[in-house]
Amino acid sequence: MSLPDVLTQARRFPNGCVTTPHHLASAAGATVLSRGGNAVDAAVAANLVLGVVTPYHCGPGGDLFAIVWDGRAHGVSSDGAAPAGATPDAVASAVGDAVVSGGGMPRFGPLPVTVPGAVAGWAHLLERWGTRSFGDLAAPAIDLARDGFEVSAHAARYFLAGRDRYRTASGWSERFGDVEAGTWLVQEDHARALELVAADGPGAVYGGPIGERIVEVLQAGGSTMTLDDLRGHEVRTDEPLRGAFRDLEVLELAPPTQGVTALEALAVADALGPLSFGEVGRVTHLHVEAARAAMADRDRYVTDPAAMTVDPTALFAPSRARAIADAIDPERAAPWPAVTPHPGGTAHVCAADRDGLLVSLIQSNYMGFGSGEVVPDVGWNLQNRGASFSLDPAHANVVAPGKRTMHTLIPSLVLRDGAPVLVLGTMGGDGQPQIHLQVLARIADQGMDVQGAVTAPRWVVDAADGAVRIEDRAGDAVIDGLRQRGHQVEVVGPYEHGMGHAHAIGLTDRGYAGATDPRAEGTVVGH
Length: 527
Known about the structure:
Strand content: 15-25%
Largest sheet: 7 strands, antiparallel
Structural class: alpha+beta
Helix content: 25-40%
Shape: globular
Number of helices: 17
Mean pLDDT: 94
Number of domains: 2
Distance between the termini: 32 Å
Oligomer: single chain
Low-confidence stretches: none
């Protein structure tokens, strides 16, 4: 049965558009555009709303990354570091007799909380490119936090899933534990905290009263986080990495993000050559193997660039990609090495305006609501990004004072002949580089419309055991083709949340083509 056009054809806008995983956020961003704001203004406004209406994905207590195109590409990384007192011994001592799976970092509570970078990231974006004040752009989020909004049945699943996960965390149950479908969710303290940032700037977080409350709640649970850790946060503006796929130039952020993982998977797929999707089982197998090889390298090498032992560009160099491609057996899955899994829980925003300013912005608490630590009188739930660290001194990503962990968040921008053709990003933890590969292969090799490429059946390799989770819409030819080649396959529902929420904007001769993922409750809005 063919899918309706709304799921396969992008919506066209002559002057600009915003696409996000929640309709209220998309509407807020589009309103900014219609009132003369630019794409950066729109993206920040949309992200602020997402922090209110999807606290299970993102918010002011998380990190932020972006790629901005203003005639050239700029990378913006606002990911917080581990506290100065964070060492494997300090964490192990604070954990005490509690059991941590695999001897790794604790996943929830105060110990995996790193410095939240989102507020500094928003401030940097607005200072560099914005035309509106933070207060103006935060107004829709403040109104929704203070006046409330109705929680949908889709969103209620995240709150329900959090009840057991966060039952011992500080503040989560009191704030979110009773939320269900139809709840009118009011967050007055969240609104007041955003107003304080609007009045005092990011210093309210990085050393001011909000920061003081953050430190208070974390130290009460054994964290070594201090105000000096918050004051020391810096936003970095790094040149994006550039890799090739077919006739496209794909831009991803450098480590500690896994952007290099996406570029390696794409480089291997490119070395395999354009593939006939008439043999869908074989093509999917080859792409799965490319993704698995890239993920194994991520686990071996990717961390804070100051601690990396290899040049990131070497991981997706043509010669290396060719060697990996040549080693792939087209008829048999390779053995799966032990790889650290990194679950998802993220929101991606794309925005474009009439002047050609483009933004790919991704922001996250990491695992759903993050750590489960909700700051009293502030109402922000703090990320648990430090759960990505290892306590193994021999691991590349071992926790260390002031170190930035390997980060799953990867905004992307795609060029052809030096000009942008696509803004792309997705939530999904380990799935993010895999989804970048699948969406770009659908567009470049199959000629799909950008919305069709986002909607198409998706697979994600489970980093824990190498199994392939795949939507049942993929069909028997793909599913059986994977199994016949030795893959462990788990078939999931037709539009499964675990397959990520991808959003994209394509550039056309007459404006923009916006795509939104049917696996979320978002939309694309523009003018």
